[in-house]
Amino acid sequence: MARTSTIERTTTETDITVKLDVDGTGQSRIETGVGFFDHMLTLFAKHGFFDLQVSAKGDLEVDGHHTVEDVGICLGQAFEQALGDKGGISRYGFIVLPMNEALATVSLDICGRPYLAYNIDLSASHIGGFDTDLAHEFFQAFTANSGTTLHVRLQAGTNPHHVIEAVFKAFGKAMDQACRPDPRVIGVQSTKGTL
């Protein structure tokens, strides 16, 4: 079965459509109006081998918060929908990824229990027009709506662009690992019989 989904979300603050193919080739078309965020989602799709389309129109005249958070909500829902009962998936993903002087660790469990541990301390508050605190808001929204336990940790790094780029690349690769079918898994990878 195709592991695909389409999520549409319209509020007074944002209008978002996300289309996801978990078993893609890393093709993406990202248009959120927040340039640095578009770049990060493109990296996530490329390194996770996910085909991803994101179209978002938000109240950027206020700031990027609602747009970034709501894209996180929609992307989380897209994975939740595309993976269905999570039968046959590996469930866990872990990667330590370098980006120049930055070294990021992302480990995750697609288990139905949302939790975020985000240990990134940046010296800069903005990269271009992107508020660096919004990376945390994105991952918080993603975990809550995908039912994923996600740990993000910075091992080294001083350049904020490199740090966040390493995190998004690692996030893509860890999600790819966790979503990957394992022929040894009968049903779901849990002694409880459900995720």
Report on this model:
By secondary structure, the chain is an alpha+beta fold. It is built from four helices and ten strands; from the N terminus they run βββαβαβββββαβα. The chain has a single domain, classed as Imidazole glycerol phosphate dehydratase, domain 1 (Ribosomal Protein S5, domain 2, 2-Layer Sandwich), CATH 3.30.230.40. It is globular. The strands form three sheets. A four-stranded mixed β-sheet has the order 1-2-4-3, covered by helices on one side.
Features:
four-stranded mixed sheet; alpha+beta; 195 residues; Ribosomal Protein S5, domain 2
Radius of gyration from the CA trace? Answer: 16 Å
Strand percent estimate: 25-35%
Sheet having the most strands: 4 strands, mixed
What is the CATH homology-level superfamily? Answer: Imidazole glycerol phosphate dehydratase, domain 1
pLDDT averaged residue by residue: 96
Overall outline: globular
Number of helices in the DSSP assignment: 4
CATH hierarchy: architecture: 2-Layer Sandwich
Distance between the termini: 19 Å
How many structural domains? Answer: 1
What class, by secondary structure content? alpha+beta
Strand order of the largest sheet: 1-2-4-3
